TrEMBL record, chain A:
Keywords: Cell inner membrane, Cell membrane, Membrane, Transmembrane, Transmembrane helix, Transport. GO terms for biological process: transmembrane transport. This is Putative spermidine/putrescine transport system permease protein. Belongs to the binding-protein-dependent transport system permease family. The chain crosses the membrane at residues 7-32, 67-86, 98-119, 125-147, 176-197, 203-225, 232-251. The keyword Zinc-finger does not apply. It is a multi-pass membrane protein. CDD domains: TM_PBP2 (cd06261). Gene3D superfamilies: MetI-like (1.10.3720.10). GO terms for cellular component: plasma membrane.
Automatic annotation (TrEMBL), chain B:
The keyword Protein biosynthesis does not apply. It comes from Microvirga flocculans. This is Putative spermidine/putrescine transport system ATP-binding protein. GO terms for molecular function: ATP binding; ATP hydrolysis activity; transmembrane transporter activity. It comes from the Bacteria. Belongs to the ABC transporter superfamily.
Length: 262, 355
């Protein structure tokens, strides 16, 4: 084996990057276009379609709602998912095997069906307010990802480390926070980002659960393109990408650093 | 600070499977006791019971007279050293060692001082700021040792601490462990499946089998005077021959096995019961070509070279036996010989029922 990668490998990698980047370039280009219709390459350069996002109140409101739902939903999913993943791995021998499968089952259900079922049970059945129903829906939507990702991280965690800490006088709950969590930090960060993005981009579940006055950004985008063909959707997409990257950066920094500082 | 440990009639189960049965063991203050036995015999389970990671289904455990049975692990004050080191990967070597001191509310400056002093004792002060991942196996185990010792626990426990190290390092490290343990006078329980390791560093060794204690004594006694066939086989008494006494005249006891009679001097063997087992290592059967020798007739089979002796697989009416013969006169397969027991290398065991 030589140190340099094979030319074919370089070629394939370049191709993959190309196909990944092209849509981004097109969307960013279209968003900057000065025309009143979607086009690429952009004709003229302007930020007016970005301004337009904030001129439309529905966009302003749904951006806030989407961020709130994604943030709270992810947080709740982590609060449930981390202990669940911990228990599943810590007591792997003692617990029945199907228990782990239970947490991934929702991924198998088509999201449309999932959304409809939630509509029937939460909004129609139990009369839960729209925002709460959305929050529950998104929490359940991202929970399987959280459990999966953190389980994967815990699978390589040596629990005798936890026992060593306890034997040295650290109470079990404290040990979980000072010893176990810092060692699955990467998993928690990955789970946070994956859950946040999944929630922020979700259409199928939200489609059923949005109601009068409360909607999410992707649903608002859908509503907008039904009526207009201007570059606003492109600029909203760019904004969404920007938000996602920003969240990833913030999560990396804060979670990463607070854990490192113990 | 050194305290005795008492395990009183402890039984333990995993689910419905019984893994320890009625185990009693007393470790004196400052003593190092090894639990020795094959994999799966319950050594780790015993340590986990003492540490409090597992609760006994019956019996009790006391340390320095204090009943541990209902005390949670983090309040037991026991130093643990694991086979896989179990260092905290996200902390530096120094922070690892200082961890237990931090839990005891000791001020940062003081715990740094004490942790450094302990690292000095295991020869790793220079690596204090490294991450554990950047250490060799031997260094990791020294850090683990320092981490357990620095809290000055009344009891120190090791679970196969050297199993992941290579042979040479294992020998060096066990001497080091013993020296530190002696210097601190810490009561210690040491788990291993390696007989040489257990015998070399322990004050006393508990030999376990299938969740039961088989014999608990000083290595010298275990090695020379095993109490039962299990321990005898474990410490290398490969020949165990059943005998019945047919006549006693003065010091001469005549005993018979498979139709062969053997006269044994009672004074050399101690008390000889009417039915007994004669147990010897291969060294304890002298291969004699003298037809008049007082021994068991045998036909030699395969000969192997041990360096210090030749070893013969022998066929006798009493079954298959193994004997060592001198280097000066190698004998051919098929030679008819007498196997003469050397009393000082043999031991008499009580006949056991259907064991
Ligand atoms: N968590 C567990 N659940 C069920 N059985 C176990 C568990 N841990 C150990 N055992 C069983 O208990 C017995 C004793 O195990 P252990 O104390 O680990 O043996 P040793 O340390 O002497 O090798 C073994 O038969 C083992 O299979
Ligand atoms: Mg073990």
């Amino acid at each position: 084996m030589s140190d340099r990668p094979h030319p074919i490998l370089i070629g394939v990698a370049a191709l993959v990057y190309f196909f990944l980047m092209v849509p981004l370039v097109i969307v960013v280009g279209a968003a900057l276009s000065d025309t009143t219709y979607l086009t690429f390459p952009p004709q003229g350069l302007s930020l007016r379609w970005f301004e337009n996002i904030f001129a439309i109140s529905a966009f302003r409101r749904t951006i806030v709602t989407s961020l709130q739902i994604a943030f709270l939903g992810t947080l709740i999913a982590l609060l449930i998912g981390i202990p669940a993943a911990y228990a599943l791995n810590r007591f792997r021998v003692e617990l029945p095997r199907w228990l782990g499968t239970l947490f991934v089952l929702p991924i198998l259900v088509p999201e449309i069906v999932f959304g409809f079922a939630l509509l029937k049970s939460l909004t129609v059945g139990a009369g839960v307010p729209v925002f709460v129903a959305l929050l529950i829906g998104h929490t359940l939507l991202v929970l399987p990802y959280v459990v999966r990702v953190i389980s994967a991280s815990l699978a390589s965690f040596d629990f005798s480390i936890e026992e060593a800490a306890i034997s040295l006088g650290s109470a079990p709950v404290k040990t979980f926070f000072t010893i176990v969590l810092p060692n699955v930090r990467a998993g928690v960060i990955a789970a946070f980002i994956l859950a946040f993005i999944t929630s922020l981009n979700d259409v199928s579940v939200s489609l059923f659960l949005t109601g009068p006055g409360i909607s999410t950004l992707p649903i608002q985008i859908l509503a907008h393109v039904e009526q207009f063909f201007d570059p606003t959707v492109a600029s909203v997409s760019v904004l969404l990408m920007f938000l996602t990257v920003a969240v990833m950066a913030v999560v990396e920094r804060t979670l990463g650093l607070t854990f490192l500082a113990k | 600070m050194t305290q005795p440990l008492d395990i009183n009639a402890v039984s333990a189960h995993y689910g419905t499977t019984k893994v320890l049965e009625d185990l009693s063991l007393s470790v004196q203050a400052g003593e190092l006791v090894s639990l020795l036995g094959a994999s799966g015999c319950g050594k780790t389970t015993t340590l986990r019971l003492i540490a409090g990671f597992l609760s006994p289904t019956s019996g009790s455990i006391t340390l320095g007279g204090r009943d541990l049975t209902r005390l949670p692990t983090h309040k037991r004050d026991i130093g643990l050293v694991f086979q896989n080191y179990a260092l905290f990967p996200h902390l530096t070597v120094l922070e690892n060692v200082a961890f237990g001191l931090k839990q005891r509310g000791i001020a940062p400056a003081e715990r740094r001082k004490r942790a450094l002093a302990m690292l000095e004792r295991v020869g790793l002060a220079a690596l204090a700021d490294r991450a554990p991942g950047a250490l060799s196996g031997g260094q990791k185990q020294r850090v683990a040792l320092a981490r357990a010792l620095v809290i000055e626990p009344p009891l120190l426990m090791f679970d196969e601490p050297l199993s992941n190290l290579d042979a040479k390092l294992r020998v060096d490290m066990r001497v080091e462990i013993r020296q530190l343990q002696r210097a601190n006078g810490t009561t210690s329980v040491y788990v291993t499946h390696d007989q040489e390791e257990a015998f070399s560093i322990s004050d006393r060794v508990a030999i376990m089998n299938a969740g039961r204690l088989m014999q608990f004594d000083r290595p010298e006694v275990l090695y020379r005077r095993p109490a039962n066939t299990f321990v005898a086989r474990f410490v290398g008494f490969e020949n165990i021959i059943p005998f019945k006494v047919t006549a006693r005249e003065g010091d001469r006891v005549t005993a018979e096995t498979a139709g062969m009679a053997l006269r044994l001097p009672q004074s050399a063997y101690g008390t000889i019961p009417d039915t007994f087992l004669l147990a010897t290592r291969p060294d304890g059967l002298v291969v004699s070509t003298d037809p008049a020798a007082e021994g068991l007739p045998a036909t030699l089979g395969l000969r192997t070279y041990l360096g210090r002796a030749y070893q013969y697989q022998c066929e006798t009416p009493a079954g298959h036996l193994i004997a060592n013969g001198s280097l000066t006169a190698p004998l051919e397969s098929g030679t008819a010989v007498k196997l003469v027991p050397a009393p000082e290398q043999c031991t008499i065991l009580a006949a056991e029922g259907a064991r």
